[in-house]
Amino acid sequence: MSGVSSADTPAAAASLPSLRARTFTIIDVAATALFGIEGAAAAVHAGLDVLGVLVVGFVVALAGGMLRDVLLGDLPPAALRTPSRIITAIAAAAAAFLVVGVVDAIPGGVLITLDALGLALFAMTGAEKASSRGANLWVVTILGGITATGGGVLRDVLLLRTPVVLTESVYGTAALAGALATGIVMSFTRRPRTAMLVGFVVAFSLRMLAVTFGWQLPRAL
Amino acid sequence: MSGVSSADTPAAAASLPSLRARTFTIIDVAATALFGIEGAAAAVHAGLDVLGVLVVGFVVALAGGMLRDVLLGDLPPAALRTPSRIITAIAAAAAAFLVVGVVDAIPGGVLITLDALGLALFAMTGAEKASSRGANLWVVTILGGITATGGGVLRDVLLLRTPVVLTESVYGTAALAGALATGIVMSFTRRPRTAMLVGFVVAFSLRMLAVTFGWQLPRAL
Amino acid sequence: MSGVSSADTPAAAASLPSLRARTFTIIDVAATALFGIEGAAAAVHAGLDVLGVLVVGFVVALAGGMLRDVLLGDLPPAALRTPSRIITAIAAAAAAFLVVGVVDAIPGGVLITLDALGLALFAMTGAEKASSRGANLWVVTILGGITATGGGVLRDVLLLRTPVVLTESVYGTAALAGALATGIVMSFTRRPRTAMLVGFVVAFSLRMLAVTFGWQLPRAL
């Protein structure tokens, strides 16, 4: 049990709900903003006007989590119950639109790292939510993967591209592995923060290692 | 309070529900038929057979409202609770299939005006529904926009086109502006018919002005 | 009433629920595996890696039924409530990935027949589920059609192809006809197994006849 943060000890249990809610909120804002910026940058380079940029930023940031909530039957989706996530996504996309030159000046390696961060954050929060609602481990893994990659898939469909998750090796795989790790730790320990931490490390590490070493998944033909 | 229709005065409040329901029904039938015809015409010109034409007409007419209802958690979607909207959409698409020569003979300006009518009608009804269910102003605006443009987005995805809402300047913008106006008037007056009238005028005017004067939204690059 | 199987007689009514559940399960497993194999084969030939193959197999096998359940408000979708359908779809897709040479060696006529079987099975189970929940005949027909063809539509959208249901004559039509037949028999007899049998025969026969004789639906232009 070493490596378990103090907030996971029984003594801290009373304050866990608010702590967990606060941790969740910070993570969600961070991942939402990251994906909103990325979506907006992709839309700018696809030649879309400012509305198209805001729409694609919104979609990349929030559609994955909204699809997860639809499939869980948790409606309206969490992203639509308060304005905070919507404002985060749209503000991030608007900022990226205004300073797209700055975004473009970010080195590719930094962008890939930020994207891997968002991917890992969403995979673990999506998996944790599904797990805390009693979903089986298959569904926890799949919904974590959908939370992390669903927005990007919809972006690619709207921009008429083959979805990155189907072509980029070890992208969806990293999200699914992180979600699976989150689900396994959840089912053994019932400690959401530990589970999310493990899932985050698995997803982020796997994605970064795959990019660094050019790992590819096998093909049949 | 000048400009407020008599049905919005307190004296008329008792009959408002049925009046509102009837107004809603007439508007919905009109907008559904308009979008069903448009979707069918697009499918005919894409070379689809009669089933494809009916499917695309159905999608353009009803998918936006169905997506709104999924996100509101109002399931099954209103369009599927009675046969009336389904029959309207399919009958309109079938009629367009049979007399596509007549539809094609309609001058472009008339078609754009009819499309703007459908856009404005769906934007305001979608916004009013979200608002009456207690959604915040951001969600009211977004769901009004989705109601008005979601069917067209799905049509473009199915026909492998970049969605019009991402490329046509001031199309989605008009829908969102009308939905926002509906939401603002709703939150200040709680008078659905006034709010919908204002939203309709905003969306329709903005779209027609943009088409007439060739307004474009800014691009970043 | 001749032609009604003995399980539909009043004497057998007591055991009908479990019989129906078992029949349903067998049919669902068969149709899910068939569509999972087909989706995986399509993904292999599109050059996707093993994750892409599993994703597309999962989508083709389960997305239609999941969309049906979202629109019925039956959430989480049945496919996500137990691991069985998920495992079936993924195992079938994995098997197809491993022995794609074997799948490719299957004669085209056999593949078309297997696909028609899956189409007919999903059309009738989708229609029966919608009907047993009190949906009107239009919705029963549409949801049967969505159950049967929704996964294939999503596959084509992800692989940037025009959906087969919009281009292949008498594919969606066969599904809709089978669903309609199921709905009509359900509303007259309230015997699910008879209704599903009739719907299956209608959908499967119509699809196979259309393929055999090259039937086409009319086009407007």
TrEMBL record, chains A, B, C:
Q: Do you know which Pfam families this protein is assigned to? A: Gly_transporter
Identify the keywords attached in UniProt to this record, alphabetized: Cell membrane, Membrane, Transmembrane, Transmembrane helix
Residues annotated as transmembrane: 24-44, 50-71, 137-158, 170-188, 195-215
What is its subcellular localisation?
A: Cell membrane
The Glycine transporter domain covers 26-99, 113-184
Chief localization = membrane
GO cellular component labels = plasma membrane
Record membrane topology: Multi-pass membrane protein
List the InterPro entries hit by this protein, alphabetically.
Gly_transporter
Q: Which family does it belong to?
A: Belongs to the UPF0126 family.
PANTHER family annotated for this entry? INNER MEMBRANE PROTEIN, UPF0126 INNER MEMBRANE PROTEIN YADS-RELATED
Report what the protein is called: Glycine transporter domain-containing protein
